[in-house]
Amino acid sequence: KAGVTQTPRYLIKTRGQQVTLSCSPISGHRSVSWYQQTPGQGLQFLFEYFSETQRNKGNFPGRFSGRQFSNSRSEMNVSTLELGDSALYLCASSAGLGPDTQYFGPGTRLTVL
Amino acid sequence: GENVEQHPSTLSVQEGDSAVIKCTYSDSASNYFPWYKQELGKGPQLIIDIRSNVGEKKDQRIAVTLNKTAKHFSLHITETQPEDSAVYFCAALSGGYQKVTFGTGTKLQVIP
């Protein structure tokens, strides 16, 4: 089975811009979660989608949003970028039917200048 | 919400020695505890996990123990090798949703 894929792998943006990141889960997985990883804050949960519905949300401002499509692919969007949004954004997929193993993608490295 | 504490933050061991990383959690409803290994430039990779109805699980050189009463769980790596060098994260998950709370990570260095 192919693993979780994320595109793009690297992004450079400037403050005030917006960005869209994409995640394709493992085939058959219906849950996609997004995390932000920074040296200072570690791995922080952004949100989780299951069957196109957001099931859970972390403590991030409304500038961070996401969606999931009928094929389980997911996108996250960050609007009005700030310097502090520079991070590795990780996507993880799982079957999503209960406490379940999550498989991570390689991440998208976002740099905001 | 759930809070997961992880210790130590850094750990150096000689090749062949054992390494132990400990985590505590706060939510007694947490029932699934995965451990991840993250190498430079890569996403976290699951190495072992344990559910709350099990006290210990082993997979070759890696083992995890869980003490539900004390709310702590530990990762044990025996016969460490240089390729074990990485950052290790513990995590806790409760309920039917996939909101995982991660520990702050342990940077393990295995010295040849």
Q: What's the short story on this structure?
A:
With 113 residues, chain A is an all-beta fold. Chain A is 0% helix and 53% strand.
Globally, the shape of chain B reads globular
Instruction: Give the DSSP E fraction of chain A (strand runs of 2 or more residues).
Output: over 45%
Helical proportion of chain B? Answer: under 10%
Q: Which stretches of chain A are poorly predicted, pLDDT < 50 over at least 5 residues? A: none
Which two protein chains have the largest interface (Cβ within 8 Å of the partner's Cβ), and how many residues from each?
A-B, 26 and 26 residues
Gyration radius over CA of chain A: 13 Å
Q: How helical, in percent, are the residues of chain A?
A: under 10%
Strand content of chain B: over 45%
Q: What is the total tally of β strands of chain A? A: 11
Average of per-residue pLDDT values of chain B: 93
Oligomer: heterodimer
Largest sheet of chain A: 7 strands, mixed
C-alpha termini separation of chain A:
37 Å
By secondary-structure content and strand pairing, the structural class of chain B works out as: mainly beta
Structural notes for this entry:
The complex is a heterodimer of chains A (113) and B (112). Chain A is built from no helices and 11 strands. Chain A has strands at 5-7, 10-13, 19-24, 31-38, 42-50, 53-57, 64-68, 74-78, 87-94, 103-104, 108-112. Chain A is globular and about 40 Å long. Chain B has no helices and 11 strands. In chain B, the strands form 2 sheets. In chain B, strands 2, 4, 5, 9, 10 and 11 form a 6-stranded mixed beta sheet that branches. A 5-stranded antiparallel beta sheet of chain B has the order 1-3-8-7-6, with no helix packed on it. Classes of the chains: A mainly beta (113), B mainly beta (112). The interface between A and B is medium-sized, with 26 and 26 residues.
Index terms:
heterodimer, A: 113 residues, mainly beta, 7-stranded mixed sheet, 0% helix, globular, B: 112 residues, 6-stranded mixed sheet, 5-stranded antiparallel sheet
